[in-house]
Amino acid sequence: MKTGARILLEGLQREGAETIFGYPGGSVLPIYDELYDSEIRHILVRHEQAAAHAADGYARASGRVGVCLATSGPGACNLVTGIATAYMDSVPMVAITGQVPTSMLGNDAFQESDITGITMPITKHNYLVKHAADLPQVVRDAFYIAGTGRQGPVLIDIPKDVMTTQLEEVPPVGTARLRGYQPTYEGHTLQIEKAVGLIAEAARPVLYVGGGVIAAGASEEVARLAELMLIPITTTLMGLGAIPCDHPLSLGMIGMHGTEAANYAVTECDLLIAVGVRFDDRVTGKIEAFAPNARVIHIDIDPAEIGKNKPVDVPIVGDAKSVLQRILHRLAKKEGRDGWLDRIHRWKEAAAGGAESDVLGPAYILAEMSDLLGENGIIVTEVGQNQMWAAQHYCFRRPRTWISSGGLGTMGYGFPAAIGAHFARPDETVVDVAGDGSFQMNIQELGTVAQYHIPVKVVILNNMYLGMVRQWQELFYDRRYSYTELPPVDFVGIARAYGVDGMRVEEKADVRAALTAAFESDGPFVLDFRIEREANVFPMVPAGAAINEMIGRRQR
Amino acid sequence: MKAHTLQVLVENKAGVLSRVAGLFSRRGFNIESLTVGTCEEPGMSRMTIVVLGDDAEVEQVKKQLNKLIDVIKVSDITERSTVDRELALIKVAADAGDSRAEVMQIASIFRAQIIDVGTRSVILEVTGDTEKIDALETLLRQYGIKEFVRTGKIALLRGSKGAKAQK
């Protein structure tokens, strides 16, 4: 005899889930009882939102499906922001929620919420399991859906009586049976040939690559294509790490806070090779002026992204890795591309330099961090100025070393996601780059890192403002700082109260020593950098402008 | 803006209608009509959805529908040779007298059945394509339409071709 709860855990193990993140409650008691002596490691967070973000960070750092668990009603509802975050960034995740017993469904029972209804628009798919016998196949299908095609979160809602049902015989698990779900991996040969033709002929091509390249593990193919055909590459925020920042063909990031070289190159290119991207408004600015003179090749696993925001000349639905491999097979090496690469070089030169100041600024801290960690380290961020500064000033060299909420822009994401990333890659130094605003959105996770001695390092770029909103108020609302100033907080004191080490840094001269101390510590560490209060993220493309209409210069 | 007719094969499971309807409202697509019922394939239902939009919008509707796991096949049959029908029930004011005779005459021209007769009204049942039902409604309006209900369009491809389950 096996209970539904046991069948669920066996399903999770079968799918390779060895670490899950959760928070107990009334409706999931049977699952927690089975977890008590299960081989699955469960990490107790301090808020369900953190469980979802931790599962997400785990998935992004490892490429495997992350798992989180919460009780019915408020527990399930607290997962919602985390699920939406994963959905927007196509992160493979399975969220498991308890539900009131089937006999009470729809009766407004204690801690009941219609979580399958609530999460319908923010999951790839979801299930309300009404029979324990369905559990094995549902778990198999859920992991299959989450981890294939365009990846995303799947929610499984399980009423409490289904968890306690005893089954004499557990139905066997087949392969995923989904007649309505067959992702396309192989690109269309005719379109691939058209793409090859355009790439061979182009005078001023640019590769524009995003999170899809990371998800497909296609970084190597991107670099090979760039090097073979001498094509400069820009990445989206989600694509950071797809190409080393110091690669000679790298233009840096594109978009609202992208580099001059990237934004100018895309505006002037005659061929845009878009791979695993979705022409998001933060990338394109005014869409009519985005790559206005270019033919567009768009490679994506999701057919709905192709042509959604910008008309495309060569649509290729498929897996980025295999499509790029097939394109590479058909191309002969390009021997020179002097004019175009020279212009790009001049844009890069013009943007470089700038005076260093004596005040403690974010760029300096991130550059020192980048220097200290070198090829090692996973950088997770919160959302706002901290995120953009990290994207601009840290040199990412490998895929899956940059973890950030791009699509939804979820403040409070970074700290719990860093916890998840640690369990996926315990060998790496995991740093959460935070602002004082964002860190306070999930600061309670200090309890989690203390309890399990999780060596996540929190680097707070503390300007006592909700900095990005303040920046917009400065630039576009006549410096009327409406509700964006935050009073000073003794973050080191809070960390210590939880039993976590910390240090406040106010002088530029102390940055390196403080970072070294944090990285050398074998436990969690909070660094509170009191930075220049009104530093801005530059360059910047104002909302609605074309991406070559940038204001401000990058600071050092 | 043009009306497109989509035939959508879906899993016959709880929540499918709400997934489809939710997709339309969330993405701001306009549904003119939607009908759903079981079909020849066991475990599946067939929806006929009439959606208003330009070609690019409807292309996006089709792609987004296809992304739903419970959607098995989406076919745009707008430009294809189909038979389509709607059924409408119309309660028309018709006192015993001239107007009742006229209503009954119009009904007979439209091959509508009179399925209920009251002292001051009659109920007509009519099937046909959307234009026919619109025309009948226009003609009956002068007598006073008390209640009007229609099923929305259902459609099948002509001949032996069909929008079967293989994607």
Automatic annotation (TrEMBL), chain B:
Cross-referenced Gene3D superfamilies: 3.30.70.260, ACT-like. Chain A, domain 2
Catalytic reaction list: 2 pyruvate + H(+) = (2S)-2-acetolactate + CO2
One record GO biological process: L-valine biosynthetic process
Top-level class of the enzyme under EC nomenclature: transferase
Alphabetical list of Pfam families matching this protein: ACT_AHAS_ss, ALS_ss_C
A GO MF term: acetolactate synthase regulator activity
GO CC, any one term: cytosol
Keyword Amino-acid biosynthesis assigned: yes
EC number(s) from the headed UniProt entry: 2.2.1.6
InterPro entries (alphabetical): Acetalactate_synth_ssu (IPR004789), Acetolactate_synth/TF_NikR_C (IPR027271), Acetolactate_synth_ssu_C (IPR019455), ACT-like_dom_sf (IPR045865), ACT_dom (IPR002912), AHAS_ACT (IPR039557), AHAS_small-like_ACT (IPR054480)
Record CDD domains: ACT_AHAS
Pathway: Amino-acid biosynthesis; L-isoleucine biosynthesis; L-isoleucine from 2-oxobutanoate: step 1/4; Amino-acid biosynthesis; L-valine biosynthesis; L-valine from pyruvate: step 1/4
Record key words, sorted: Amino-acid biosynthesis, Branched-chain amino acid biosynthesis, Transferase
Matches recorded under SUPFAM superfamilies: ACT-like
Domain ACT intervals: 5-79
Subunit (UniProt): Dimer of large and small chains.
Biological function: Catalyzes the conversion of 2 pyruvate molecules into acetolactate in the first common step of the biosynthetic pathway of the branched-amino acids such as leucine, isoleucine, and valine.
Recorded family membership: Belongs to the acetolactate synthase small subunit family.
NCBIfam families: acolac_sm, PRK11895.1
Protein name: Acetolactate synthase small subunit
Native organism: Methanofollis liminatans DSM 4140
